[in-house]
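Progress note, project year one: complex with calcium ion.
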Amino acid sequence: MKTTSYAVGLALLVPLWGLAQTNDDLVKGSANTGEVVNYGMGYNLQRFSTLTQINSGNVQKLVPVWNYSLDDNRSEESQPLVYKGVLYVTSHNATVAIDAKSGTQIWKAKLEYPADVPRVVCCGIINRGVAIYEGKLFRTTLDANVIALDAKTGKELWRQNAADYKVGFTMTMAPLVADGVVITGISGAEFGTRDFIDGWDPDTGKHLWRTYTVPEPTEAGGNTWSGDTWKFGGGSTWITGSFDPELHTLYWGVGNPGPFNAAVRPGDNLYTCSVLAMDPKTGKIKWHFQFSPNNPFDYDSVAEMVLATIDVKGKPTPVILNANRNGFFYVLDRNDGKLLAANPYVKVTWASGIDLATGRPIETDVAKGARSGEKVTVFPSILGGKNWEPISYDPKTRLAYANTLLFGGHYKTTPAEYKAGEWYVGMDLSDLWEWGTGPRGELKAIDPMTGQTKWGVPSDIPRFSGVLSTAGGVVFSGRLTGEFEAFDAESGKKLWQFKAGSGIEGQPVTWEQDGVQYVAVTSGIGGVYSLFSGDERLASVPAGGSVWVFALQKS
Ligand code: CA
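Model obtained:
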């Protein structure tokens, strides 16, 4: 009896000591200026900080505090987390804990991959970061494993395989912990996989649920696929969702249908190119909204679903903001998915608008021609009006800051034949781009309800970095040529830049520690534009992953 109660007492105490990160901490993450505990700097994915020590009047005095080599020549897209003075960041083959003030490594946990892993990765050898919860870190791997690590030591606590990498499944996204469940998506739609979202037990790794993004014929939405096409239907879920803790609802974007050649799969192809509102405990779909039915153009709708409260017809309304890859900026009511606004934020030629009553695009001859096998020029290109690089929403200026893509593409279908582990797209990939003569990218400040650009900062080579905005009136982003930049949030005026040793496509974050505001970002070139654009101007940008941390120069 005595032994039992002693054991029970100890069992109760140990979790209390070990509670390095609670559900409440994650819920309050967007207001916690001393730490960065969520991907997206909050469950709302706004990437906005109320900190003002660094502001539009003094950002010129920003200087590097430390630089940490990731000892990796791949693309670095990881968003750092910061908890109790420790910065956690990932590369494709390691997770590291670094003292956030000094830049000194605390531990490094390396990953080993099978030799054939790069062959089955679509669009970059990368990882986008960790989730933290109750003393554990959670990350994904290129060979489709989900791993839990001890945040103090880096020791691996559990590992679960989500799917077979040999047929094209990959994981690059940062997991999300919501209502005590570790949630992960999957990549692989370019390989004819049938994709899903998973829930895992944070303590044991037990698989709790799986929700397929492509339903079976007998399930709801199954009638939007013909024959066996659903088995190869794609719908990957490769960017971390947002979470409304009051509604207990996840908002997770779903990628393109497979193959790109839409004639192969007549129907709307639910739930590809959609957002799913889900219960994090069960994976049950509460509602869905489809942006691009029967999409031919690889318009993954995985771009982050930013949660905000904005005025709609004079009434504060909880919404989802989404700069969709299809070129339209959407505002949805996050209670029920009702469409409130959808306006182009870049040049769009495949649709002339979105029907607000039905939510469906009003397609042009470009989309119809593409489906019938004609060679067409389409805006946006298959990389979209914006690709994966996350936007920031500033509730003070009420603007969304997005690294947009200004170029179009050429599209021509080819026959698609499924072969396990091979690309399954059914598209001529030999002549992809319609560059035009002007800048290929523009950092834009967008009014969500109109899609109108308040200001824009063009760049010849498009930016592929995340965006961060602050109450100090500063917007941070980076260039593939290595410049980390700061802009005035109201005017877009460039205020500062620092040249890092390699291209920047990381996700900047900020926090305050011992009275000092820091900004961190990863540097390291690679990723989808570098791989597929053939842009020779990037040939002189050296590889070499590292983490940069900045603060104001001490006077
Ligand atoms: Ca895709």
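Confidence is low (pLDDT under 50) at residues 1-18.
The radius of gyration is 22 Å.
No further modelling is planned for this target in the current period.
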